[in-house]
Amino acid sequence: MDLVAPVVVEPLRRRRCSECHRGPLDRMIVEFNAPVCLDCADLGHLVFLRRGDTALTRRAREASTLWAVVVRHNRRRTRYERQGLLVEEAALAEAERACLADSEARAARRARDAVRRAAVDAEITAALLTEILRLFPSCPADRATEIGVHASTKGSGRVGRTAAGRSLDRGAVTAAVRASVRHVDTPYDSLLMQGVPRHQARTRVAPAIEAVLRTWREDGGSTSGRERG
């Protein structure tokens, strides 16, 4: 089966997302001639790998279930030029391990780890983690931690860094958990790579997402009145 990689554009002028209206956008996709931010396009969990290291790029692409090509328009040459890839963080880590013989790859890994550690705000992450486990008491602790860290990464614009996220709005927290379930516990990413339109793919995996959230909500107490996101 041929894979259809999404194309992500680095816009030359200020653009705002047509769905969430956030902006200006550093990177976006174009759907129905309208800009869509990476979070709304379900690509926000991917990390950027700049072009230049052929071996690292190849290994990261092969290890990533979902990946996207990043391009930017060169006005002088009147063409789009490839800037790199967006890949899953775990795939990039696996590719870097495979390239450990390369000193530049080792340096890049250390720099990336340092940036990630510096980006995590412990207080926001801890509060978000507590709220995730309150709303979803049966969510595995390691998954709750993963969701909390991802959603509260400094400078990401993800839910943990929005006003709703900082106020621990139930809908915002549920949205972060739902996004994690979509990518980790369903074949959603594979559907996108098969060329299934994003909205159709979401519809197809919605029952599986609800089943996981229902299980995670269950505990010894009442769950009546809780939002399902």
TrEMBL record:
InterPro entries: DUF2293. It comes from Streptomyces litmocidini. Pfam families: DUF2293. This is DUF2293 domain-containing protein. Residues 132-217 form the DUF2293 domain.
